[in-house]
Amino acid sequence: MKKILVIGALGQIGSELTPEFNKRYGCDNVVVADVAYDKHGVVKDNAFEKIDVTDYNAIESAIKRHRIDTIINLAAILSAKGEQNPDLAWRINIDGLLNVIRLGVKYKLDRVMVPSSIAVFGPQSVLYNAPQETVLKPNTMYGITKVTGELLADYYFRNFGLDFRGIRYPGIISYKTPPGGGTTDYAVEIFYDALKHKKYTCFLSSEACLPMMYMPDCIRGTIMLLEADRSKLQHHGNYNLGAMSFTPEILAAEIRKHIPEFEISYKPDFRREIAKYWPASVDDSSARAEWGWAPQWDLPATVADMLKEVAKKVN
Ligand code: NAD
Ligand code: SER
Predict the structure, then answer these.
(1) Are 73 and 96 in contact (CB under 8 A)?
(2) Which one of the listed residues 142, 175, 186, 277 is annotated catalytic?
């Protein structure tokens, strides 16, 4: 793993993963790519390639020019946007993924990492302490693309020896870059509205309990899996990763410890139906056993830090 290409680097996760890569591997060894331009200077220390992940030739050219041996593909359409445009979700999440996989095989890349999601679960899955291996029949296009990605990871590992790694991220909470159109985005928006207006109207129902994770844990877990000893890994693109679980009510109560006047109300929309069949919690014993995962951020610590950091932006 000497030279890394991060595709979709300007999004919620990439904009925080890339600086961490820079610290660890050196800016010269990390090339960033996105279909968007880095207008806000999010990853200003790296070589930048404007690449659409559905463009095979553009990715190949970057691999050759920069002598890339590792790809992290974060380019995706998330759950809520995916329901509004299922064709686009398939094109980017699957056609784009296949480009990365085919080039990974062609150039014998050291490893490829592509996130999965809690969206792989569905109405027939076990939704409390959701097992690593269970029925995966999601009812969103986003979930379908993520299950397909996990199956492709197993297939290309088995048949082509491609070292494909991925985590089923829970909802990621962060303040640096806004989330990109998912069902768990409420757990970020709420902090801005709490600080600006002391009230928030949630698009999920009050009892929607979902697994969530603070960005520092997400980045640490991602790097742990990326660097894990291959011989210890029993899975490929589908590690469950847990940190905390809460409903909007529980989150609001935690925020109220800092802002007593804060009020939450509910106006559920189509995203309530998405959240309904996602797990309340996940069993991450494989990640713990195979590569030493343990979260460091719980809900009280996350809320305190988010309020402190978002306050700096809002003010
Ligand atoms: P995001 O939407 O914030 O960022 C995605 C990035 O990909 C954006 O910068 C966007 O410009 C770029 N992109 C979109 N289409 C592209 C294309 N055709 N070619 C190249 N780049 C393109 O997403 P994120 O939250 O950073 O998610 C990264 C990965 O993690 C995705 O696979 C997502 O499914 C997964 N994930 C995220 C969460 C979460 O809560 N953030 C949870 C589970 C899984
Ligand atoms: N946070 C993501 C979403 O809501 C989960 O994959 O789409």
Answers:
(1) yes
(2) 142
